[in-house]
Amino acid sequence: MQALTALLAGLLFGVGLIVSGMVNPAKVLGFLDLAGKWDPSLALVMAGAIAVGGIAFAVADKRSTTLLGTPMMLPAARNLEPRLMLGSLLFGVGWGLAGFCPGPALVALGAGYAKAVVFVVAMLAGMLVFEWAERGRAGSAPAAEPRAAASE
């Protein structure tokens, strides 16, 4: 049941990205082009996603299990650290250069966009470099464990 739910959620996400045009790098780059012909449609997509996500996290925070009965595991870290800010900066630069972020890139890859292949390969390489760097950090603290949500 979990696999089917994950598949349906992923399909819904992918369809939403296609319908909103977010798999088209030109649309994303149009949003980021504040000095040129700015396309504000991505701002509306983001606002909708933030609203839905905010409601979902508010509900999830009050539950101890998911609707499928598995433990509700939410991130425990709530503070802004330099590593998070640097990662966000790198993400934004990559997004601005390529016009893709991970979700739309995977959808575009499935749709056969050649540019998405290059992006996804670079993304996976970056993930591997991160893992390699994390393992090499001397005296690093263990990764933050997700916190369990409040009881139902």
Task: Give the SSE map.
Layout: H1 2-20, H2 25-32, H3 41-61, E1 73-74, H4 82-98, H5 102-110, H6 114-136, E2 147-148
Antiparallel strand pairs: 1-2
Helix pairs in contact: 2-4, 5-6
Report on this structure:
- Strands 1-2 form a two-stranded antiparallel sheet.
- The chain contains six helices and two strands; from the N terminus they run αααβαααβ.
- It has 152 residues and is mostly helical.
- The mean pLDDT is 86.
- The two termini are 22 Å apart.
- The chain is 64% helix and 3% strand.
- The chain has one domain (2-137).
- It has helices at residues 2-20, 25-32, 41-61, 82-98, 102-110, 114-136; strands at residues 73-74, 147-148.
Oligomer: single chain
Kindly state the number of beta strands.
2
Strand order of the biggest β-sheet: 1-2
- Main beta sheet, described? 2 strands, antiparallel
DSSP helical segment count: 6
Structural class: mainly alpha
Instruction: Report how far the terminal alpha carbons are from each other.
Output: 22 Å
Low-pLDDT stretches are none
What is the overall silhouette? Answer: globular
Strand content: under 5%
* Element pattern in H and E: HHHEHHHE
Task: Report the average pLDDT across residues.
Answer: 86
Alpha carbon gyration radius: 18 Å
> Percent helix among the residues?
55-70%
